[in-house]
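Repro case for the chain-ordering regression, as requested:
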Amino acid sequence: MNSISRRKFLKITGFSVGAAATVSALSPIINGSEKINKVKVKGIQKIPTYCDICFWKCGAIAYLKDGQLWKVEGHPNDPLSKGRLCPRGTGGVGAHYDPDRLRSPLIRTRERGEEKWKEVTWNEALDYIATKMNKIKTSYGPESVAFFSHGIGGNFLKHTLKAFGVNNISAPSYAQCRGPRDVGFELTFGDGVGSPERTDIENAKCLVLIGSHLGENMHNSQVQEFANAVQNDSTIIVVDPRFSVAASKAKYYLPIKPGTDIALLLAWMNVIVKEKLYDVDYVKKYGFGFEQFAAEISPFTAEWAYTETGIDVELIKTTARVMAMNKPATLIHPGRHVTWYGDDAQRSRAIALLNALLGSWGRKGGFFFPSSYSIPAYPYPEYPTTKKEKVDNPDNKYPFAIEEITTGIREATITGNPYPIKGWFVYATNLLHALPNEEETIRAIQNLDLMVVVDVIPSEIAGWADVVLPESVYLERYDDLHASSFKETFVGIRQPVVESPADQKPNWWIAKKLAGKLGLGNYYPWEHVEEYLDHRLKAAGLSLDQLKKEGIIRGEKQPLYIEDGIEPEFATPSGKIEFYSLQLSNAGFDPVPKYTKPEEPPAGYFRLLFGRSPVHSFSRTQSNRILMDMMNENEVWVNSDIANRYGLSNGMYVKLKNQDGVVSNKIKIKVTERIRTDCVYMVHGFGHNSKMLKGAYGKGASDAQLITKYKTDPIMGGTGMNVNFVTFELEV
Amino acid sequence: MARFGMVIDTKKCVGCMDCVVACKTENNVPEGYNRDWIVTAANGKFPDIHLEIQTQRCNHCDYTPCVSCCPTGASHVEDFGKIVLVEHNKCIGCKACLAACPYDARFIHPDGYADKCTFCIHRVEKGELPACVSVCPTHCMYFGDLDDPNSEVSKLLASRKNHSLIPEAGTLPRIYYLT
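-- result from build under test --
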């Protein structure tokens, strides 16, 4: 039985790590597999690593046949993949062989965005960058360089930049993705949902997906657990304006009007509270402000919600009762990409509250308590203290922001307030597809003295850089250790399997070299990343040799639920689950989520919705020739009745024009019964216009291009992006 | 001797195409070609839709028009598992088998021979599952001996509602879909 709160435990270990010694003990370099394929080995070799086609970081085993990269499979001992990768991971070899990859460092020769370059040596590229960075430091201070990064590969560059004095560091995964969810849950439970999510899908007796399209959205462990839930006859409830694949597995499908989810959530809670179907003991024991909460939601009946959502009264009531019947093993999934309408933190809070009513937080089939393998950080010298505040959230404009806001840094770069931002470092995130309103991004870039992109492919954002640095793909490099919080503790390694085909370099090498050029060599007391990894592993009682062989080392099983004896703690002001949030009301926000009507589309326009394909990650994989063979362009989904009215037929090409007159690339029509008549849908990531990305150039349309409008969440700074409307242009 | 077949649970399948990708890498299927593929059939009027997703490939039929039409004997049924194969160096690329197959499961490989799903015989001979089955993240695919009443595939077919594709073609296909 575990009587220590897991959260507290993690905090304690985190603290002891931070306080560790600052002197490093050098360990000898290990002869690693980096050299392994200089001599081509006959026959089959299997080398464990972890995947990088998305951020899930599944354990994998790469196969070489006669020294050539052949295939990648899941690592059987990996708790995330359980030996089975998703289609993108299985297609990972295509990343190595992608003919459109960046091959050598590039320096811009013409105007930004013209994509005219000269190939340079690494020395020239890094000298150029270091000179410009030092100039910015002298004129404006090191805080005037900002870093945008996505994924674990950014760790070493982050280290170099922090050593330089950079404090404006951000990722679109917060303000353009999961931020509102994490804030909504923190405000309610005092803790976030995490990544991978702490959702116990496979044990849920009732699973509710709101706009979350598992199966199309291919987060491996989530989809595997979802399939188990389907097999176990879990009652699945899907709320989506589009009849998703997940909807086809559901017992109850609620074809909701886009933007009205909060009305549905309030009505569900209203039914559950009125009929006293909630977990009374749980709410009494752990809840704060329940009476006020109950009073706040009492007007919002199923009958009221019907007029907003278009969902039948009886369907609302029935699904509420089904959820209650299965409590506490009812999981209302918090979703992941939830920046939709600008009131997303409150919608996420409503989801958190519904879970709280059913007692699913901390319970089997709800939200488990995750834990991670404790590996001390490398004892680097301390970073210089930055003199200036971060620019992304001046005057605490978004009072409940818990991470840095990309679009806040962009705004500061445009306005020069609170101080100028003059340098951008962009690692593995295609900001032109990730941030709303690409014109603002370009305007910001035009104010820069230095714009560096580090990536494996020539993304659109690379086209706007001054210097482009080609990175080795994950199958060719080491990265930092992987020890995510999950159902069980583990540590995984990414190690090189094959050589890079040209002059690409691993991010750790780039980061270390740049540090050298900046006179920050003391921040890299190790020569090769193997020393760094071995040092960290030794501190945890493991070794690099062992991990390179095994790929994954699992820790001891940990208790997961309140049922296992975990006493939950809630890091909220009241120390309880906050049904009524005083900190929100004190800051001028609704203490209990309220519904606001969404804006209606202008006549002849349709709300633009977007989502994921199981065979692509963001805008990063469209030139992977294997994944391209699975899907080489996106389609716009149009309801059959609308298609008839506009004379649209399956397979014909149209352009989409948004409310601001922006016109997309041409895109194929998919006429379908699987979507409402008031919206259209497309898969995100297509419509590339980077000329260097030859395989993907001009194929399909980009939702990002059409997202000129966004609604910022006043609570946490997320950018709601499902607020754009499009119509069809038939001449293409 | 075994008679291999496949059972696919459409209730679990999400149509992610992992089976298609795994086949491509396992068997080095060239760019622009696939030995298996996904078909999604939606019926009904919004919001009352029924969706069935099928992963399709050569059905390794009991009655094989692709074999009987082959002028060179390249297209044949292996003794091992009754798997239908093409012997590449005997094939002249005449496309008779492409025309004979009711499932459109064959294509002409850029190297000039008729190509299609082999049930990953090179894996199955070693006691492994076909690549598509072994990779599936939803565990919706099952492979085994249809003649063995105790095999997982036989038990699933005995206990669950199922159908095959184009049974009216009379080729006695050996891939079944649980519904």
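Ordering looks correct now. Residues 18-27 of chain B form the longest helix (10 residues).
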